[in-house]
Amino acid sequence: MSAPSVFLMNHIEAMIFCAPAPVRADELRQCLNEMLATEIPAEDVQAALDALQNRYDRDDTALQLVRAAGGYQLLTKPAYKQSVGLLLKNTSKKRLSQAALETLAIIAYKQPVTKAQIEQIRGVACDYALQKLLEKELIEIRGKSDGPGRPLLYGTSPAFMQYFNLNDLKDLPQPKDLPQEENQNLLPPETE
After folding, report:
1. Distance (Å, whole) CA 10 – CA 16
2. What is the pLDDT of residues 24-72, one digit of tens each?
3. Which of 18, 23, 27, 34 has its CB surrounded by the most CB atoms within 10 Å?
4. Three-state secondary-structure class, residue 139
5. How open is the CA angle 42-52-32, to the nearest 5 degrees?
6. Closest among 66, 73, 77, 78 to 16, alpha carbons compared
7. How far apart are CA 74 and CA 13, in angstroms?
8. CA distance 123 to 184
9. 139 Cβ contact partners less than 8 Å away, ≥ 6 residues apart
């Protein structure tokens, strides 16, 4: 049997890397057949998997190719458990609650906006959500309103743009494109 092609190995590696669950060899073969519009022998797919297994068995990589649930999956080696665990723990802290997401959406579409305006739209107090969004640096204080009491004005931050992978606020979905019940408060008032 000849050595598997680097082309085949790289495509199989990419599919396994992107798969959310273990991928069976026959699934890999089916995808390759469709992509290349030709019949890839099962032996070639298995040879590529074996070569990948050998590559990941070396000590110079943090990953391992694991056979699980009848398929293949890329996982980190046990030696890196502590660093990966710490990263996942810190990443999970970055998740946003429903209240924070609602508050953030209002700020994104209405900015600059005051706390009172946000609460009027949401119908509930938003102190905690604002605090969390400020801590996560997804929003920032943009100044003070000229209204009574000169309340703070909130707007989105550069971290917001990065978090949601936006280049410009114009990239946000337009309220007219959202289902009516979800965007009732985001649409500008109709003028007569």
Report:
1. 10
2. 999 999 999 999 999 999 999 999 999 999 999 988 899 999 888 889 9
3. 23
4. strand
5. 40
6. 73
7. 9
8. 13
9. 104, 107, 130, 133, 154, 155, 156, 157, 160
CB atoms within 10 A of CB 54: 10
- Reduced 3-state DSSP string for 164-188: CCCCCHHHCCCHHHCCHHHHCCCCC
pLDDT tens digits, 139-171: 999 999 998 999 999 999 998 888 787 888 888
Mean pLDDT (the chain) is: 86
Backbone angles phi, psi at 154, to 5 degrees: -110, 145
Would you give the distance in Å from CA 17 to the centre of its chain? 16
* Alpha-carbon gap, residue 178 to 186, rounded angstroms: 10
Q: Which residue has the tokens 């992978």?
A: 165
Q: Is 152 in contact with 115 (CB distance < 8 Å)?
A: yes
Distant-in-sequence, close-in-space partners of 16: CB < 8 Å, separation ≥ 6 = 23, 28, 52, 65, 72, 73, 74
Q: Residue 63's beta-bridge partner residues? A: 76
Helix 127-135 to helix 115-122 angle (10° resolution) is 120
Cα 178 to Cα 184: distance, rounded to the nearest angstrom: 9
Residue type at 155 in one-letter notation: G
- Sheet with 113-114, edge to edge strand ranges: 113-114, 152-156, 139-144
* Cα torsion angle, 184, 186, 187, 191, sign: positive
